[in-house]
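task queued by scheduler; priority normal; single chain, no ligands, no partner chains; default sampling; output format set to structure tokens
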Amino acid sequence: MKLSTNLQYLRRLHGGMSQERLAQQLEVSRQTVSKWETGEAYPEMEKLMEIGALFSCSLDELLRSDMASRADCFSDVSVVMVPAMTLARYVVISPQPERDVQLVLERWAQESGLTQLQAPLRQIGWDFPFVSKEQQSRFGLRGYAAGWILPEGTEPECPGLELYRQDAARYARITVRDPFVSTFDRIPKGYQMVLEYLGANGFKESHDTGFLPCFEEVYEREGVTHMDIYVHADCVGRANLFTDFSREG
């Protein structure tokens, strides 16, 4: 059973929750939580179900998964303020939309003169969900959107991409190390961890159509590929948790 280490990991993941705070939410003593984490005692099924609901995880994950191993490829989740941005974006529906949209963006960047600017170029992307079941099952098609974050004051005249403007907004963010080593495991798990964090800390995933609901940014740091995953969140009243939209390197 991995319950003891998983409980410690889940407390750290959810804002550094103390044993006392967890005990209060489960209506047990702090000493009881301590014994669970040292393996001296084991919660009853009712409490296990409460723990799973509190941390948005299944009983199988709670009891059998090695959640602490996530620390090797996932950062902690934080809430950040993403500044206002102008995005030159494009959508592709194809069997390999990530590759195909990248070809379009690179060609557009050259033709628009974007590659000649001194400012470093930043690109974000996200799944495009509006693909019919027939397109998916019969033709193997998927949708993906991506775009360049345009430097302030840039007004490209080259047609072909949609210019999209978004005001400053709050997002929950997690960084995934080597996301493409196991694409269909690490990236979905990253999103899951963000949603777990939002739920455990009293936030709600926002579906405000005035903002991108989520997006990803891929970059290299010290020779290793990283992906930042962002989910737009309803964070009113949580200003003490916000940090700037920035990273080193």
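post-processing summary
- Strands lie at 78-82, 85-94, 122-127, 142-150, 162-166, 169-177, 204-205, 214-221, 224-234, 242-244.
- The chain has three domains: 3-70, 85-166, 167-244.
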